[in-house]
Design brief:
Largest sheet of chain A: none
Radius of gyration of chain A: 26 Å
Structural class of chain B: mainly alpha
Strand content of chain A: under 5%
Order of helices and strands of chain B: HHHHHHHHHHHH
Mean pLDDT of chain A: 87
Shape of chain B: globular
Mean pLDDT of chain B: 92
Radius of gyration of chain B: 24 Å
Low-confidence stretches of chain B: none
Helix content of chain A: over 70%
CATH class of the largest domain in chain B: Mainly Alpha
Strand content of chain B: under 5%
Low-confidence stretches of chain A: 1-19
Oligomer: heterodimer
Number of domains of chain A: 2
Number of domains of chain B: 2
Order of helices and strands of chain A: HHHHHHHHHHHHHH
CATH topology of the largest domain in chain B: MetI-like fold
Chain lengths: 294, 300
């Protein structure tokens, strides 16, 4: 603090100002360092993914700009020869129904739990709350056995059902809390006007819930897209594997072949990153809804 | 039964069927399998409490108190619980508060939050690269060798004494953004009058943070702390991708052990016993959630 007061300001004010001034610099420096620490790991791998194989083997990515040598060959190799192209498609085939199915089923159930007379409603909600916390690991083996018996292991149908079931408790709980916060008078007056439950649900509740549904859809999409464990257990068939499973399989052979691993990782990150930057607000709402008190 | 009544049950039917078949029944079945060899993923031979006894007396990779410090998946999970929870919540709080006072708040928050958008698989690869033992690829070893020319590169993920810390740092990198966003939202919701009043009364920033802001944020901090604890108790992906539990099983956590024993070692009954232990560990949080729900319903 070098601020020497030659003006008519009282000493305490000067002191406080000086303190603030130095604090501010301190804050900028700390935030800058944190930003660097947070960015360096991803940026390093991103730069590596565009470097030629020989360059990666002989020098670090931080030297990549002198001289600048970049290529998209790694991406071509991974997409074609390593089957990431197929896995990319598989990820979509798994994720789109894996997002829509739980939300549709949950929306219908959540409406009933919020606004229709059901015996034991309170118990259903308590069970849902318990299921929110229970680890997926506790269900894997019996579900796998069930799938084996019905020939669903390794099929898209199987993994859609799994993701739907695993996603339901959160989806129902979130939507039920949202639906119940809608004004009661709305439903009542619609009923007086002779609207059926299906009309109220479809014409009133759903249109009013678009932001909540969007947040939930993005959350579920990211969850399923990024899932490893469920796919690892139920998608044993290599032809149908999503990217997460493909990448872990590639680790077995190419663990230190960074030109392959880096490109593969960034292909798998492309869609979530686009979704994140395009729909950030919805994603954050969906992600935090479970933890924040209503 | 009136038309209206049965319609409600029809609405919840698909959800109830899926939840019963794929969540409730399997959970009960897993408890049953934990007392069995579980071969063929079904009950074959009853073994009583054998798996549980073995887990805590014979399985050095799960629970080992024969040496100091104790080791195994249980103690690694405890290490995660302490360091990961403090790390994510602490750094999250720190960034939320600091970012609140600068103009580039959105930028810094986005940078910290982005890892939440990518898969743990991709994050695992990113951090394997950071920790690479080759100073020509791993930035950490490049820095080490660059700063101390006499140093030899350290295989961060290959050392029994370092691997857990290395994994936990990757975990903190992933989850801090989540904590930060929630704390930041709570921070914006705090009544400004109280902070103004503290300032008028001559409190310095340090005092007004610890005496005013922090106590008001406490309920939020508790909620995310429980969320982080539950995350650790379920953790699997990062360990699986980065180390496969190695070296020599030194980085196993219970969520990983369950998978490994069941699907790699072909011991579903043994894996089921670990799953039941996971279930027991999350039970307090089930109770906390239910209490919170009851309180909210009363307020509604």
């Amino acid at each position: 603090m070098t601020a020497v007061s030659s003006t008519a300001v009282s000493t305490t004010t000067t002191k406080r100002r000086g303190l603030r001034f130095s604090n501010k610099w301190f804050v900028h420096i700390i935030l800058f360092c944190l930003a660097v620490v947070w960015l360096v790991p991803s940026v390093g791998l991103l730069i590596t993914s565009f470097r030629p194989r020989e360059a990666i083997a002989t020098s670090g990515w931080w030297t990549a700009f002198s001289p600048a040598q970049f290529t998209t060959e790694n991406y071509m190799e991974v997409l074609n020869a390593q089957g990431m192209g197929d896995s990319f498609i598989n990820s979509f085939k798994i994720t789109i129904p894996g997002t829509l199915l739980p939300i549709i089923i949950a929306a219908v159930a959540a409406y009933a739990l919020a606004w229709m007379p059901i015996k034991g409603k309170d118990w259903i909600l308590v069970i849902l709350l318990a299921l929110l916390v229970i680890p997926i690991q506790t269900t894997l083996v019996p579900v796998l056995r069930l799938f084996n018996q019905f020939g669903l292991t390794g099929t898209y149908m199987g993994i859609w059902i799994a993701h739907t079931a695993y996603g339901l408790p959160f989806c129902i709980y979130l939507l039920r809390n949202f639906f119940i916060s809608l004004p009661k008078e709305l439903m009542e007056s619609a009923k007086i006007d002779g609207a059926s439950e299906i009309t109220i649900f479809w014409r009133i509740v759903i249109p009013l819930s678009v932001p909540a549904l969007a947040s939930l859809a993005i959350f579920q999409f990211m969850w399923v897209w990024n899932d490893l464990l469920v796919a690892l257990v139920f998608m044993s068939d290599p032809i149908n594997q999503p990217m997460t499973v493909r990448i872990q399989a590639m680790l077995g052979t190419y663990a230190t072949e960074w030109h392959i691993m880096s490109a593969a990782s960034f292909i798998s990150m492309a869609v979530p990153l686009v979704v994140f930057f395009a729909l950030q607000r919805y994603f954050v709402t969906g992600l935090t809804a479970g933890a924040v008190k209503q | 039964m009136s038309q209206k009544t049965w319609l409600g049950y029809l609405f919840i039917l698909p959800a109830v069927v899926l939840i019963v078949f794929f969540l409730i029944y399997p959970t009960i079945r897993t408890i049953q399998l934990s007392f069995d060899t579980g071969m063929g993923f079904t009950t074959t031979e009853f073994v009583g409490l054998q798996h549980y006894v073995n887990l805590f007396t014979r399985d050095r990779l799960f629970f080992d108190i024969s040496s100091w410090p104790p080791s195994g998946a249980v103690f690694n999970t405890i290490l995660w619980l302490i360091l990961f929870t403090f790390g994510t919540v602490g750094v999250g709080l720190f960034v939320a508060v600091l970012a609140n006072s600068v103009r580039y708040e959105v930028l810094i928050k986005t940078i910290i939050f982005v890892p939440m958008a990518i898969s743990f698989t991709a994050a695992g690869i990113i951090w394997r690269f950071v920790y690479s033992p080759d100073p020509n690829s791993g930035i950490l070893n490049a820095l080490l060798v660059g700063l101390i020319p006499s140093a030899t590169p350290i295989p961060w993920l290959g050392r029994v004494d370092i691997v857990n810390y290395a994994l936990i740092i990757a975990g903190i990198w992933l989850w801090t953004g989540f904590c930060m966003v929630i704390i930041s939202a709570a921070l914006k919701g705090l009544p400004t009058e109280v902070l103004e009043a503290a300032k008028v009364d001559g409190a310095n920033p340090w005092q007004s943070f610890w005496r005013v802001t922090f106590p008001m944020l406490w309920p939020t901090i508790l909620v995310i702390t429980t969320t982080m604890i539950i995350n650790v108790l379920k953790a699997f992906d990062l360990v699986y991708i980065m180390t496969q539990g190695g070296p020599r099983g030194a980085s196993r956590v219970i969520g990983f052990s369950m998978y490994w024993e069941t699907f790699q070692n072909g011991k579903p009954g043994y894996g089921a016993a670990i799953a039941v232990i996971m279930l027991i560990l999350v039970t307090p949080f089930v109770i906390i959630n239910i209490r919170r729900y009851r309180r909210e319903e009363r307020e509604r």
